[in-house]
Amino acid sequence: MDVTHEILFIELIGLGTSKMVNIDPKEIFFLALRKDAFQVILVHNHPSGMLKPSEADEQLTHRMVYVGKYVNLPIWDHLIITDKSYYSFLDSGLLEKLEADNTDIPDVILESILKAEKEMAEKKLSITTAKFIIHLHKKGANLEEITAIAELDEDEIKKIIEEFEAGEYDA
User: How are strands ordered across the β-sheet holding 75-81?
Assistant: First the structure.
């Protein structure tokens, strides 16, 4: 979602079995950061028709809330949908409870989150830098000016401009 709570995009992250799906937080947050989202809504289905969140649903949501706080991209809601209805973590108050839960996340998860955060921060920085360079290029700045402003060498600037012209950045 953007800052006005408009949905920017819907993305299928994973397919699972009738009982579970494995989701990696970095897949969710990398996409959201890449598309300049302000908040994230998680949605998954329960083919059984049961709306009550499972313990795994709660653990996943807690983990995503934790990662969202870390990368400054909060979870707005987590919806469980069935053929007939839906369950909202936000409306039920469960999201607020999970946000307030300061229980230590196991070290293995924390390490994964920290690694993912670092990767996402590097990607976000490189995307932001590339967009800035492309903006300068579009405005007519020459290579020397862009190099001085961006504090990158000419080869890096040329590579970013070539990637943009090849359609790799949507700046």
Answer: 40-45, 75-81, 86-88
Q: Determine the average pLDDT of the residues in 56-62.
A: 88
Are the C-beta atoms of 62 and 39 separated by less than 8 Å? no
pLDDT at site 92: 96
Placement of tokens 């990767």 in the chain: 119
Identify any residues that bridge with 44 across adjacent strands, giving them in sequence order.
80
**Angle CA 79–82–88, to nearest 5:** 25
Torsion angle (degrees, nearest 10) of CA 100, 3, 35, 135: -130
Stretch 47-76: mean pLDDT: 87
Q: How far is it, in rounded angstroms, from Cα 73 to Cα 79?
A: 17
Q: What is the pLDDT of residues 120-134, one digit of tens each?
A: 666 655 777 777 788
Average pLDDT in the 81-101 region? Answer: 92
Global model pTM greater than 0.90:
no
Q: Tell me, what amino acid is at 169?
A: Y
CA dist., res. 66 & res. 169, Å (int): 29
- CA 60, CA 129: separation in Å to the nearest integer? 32
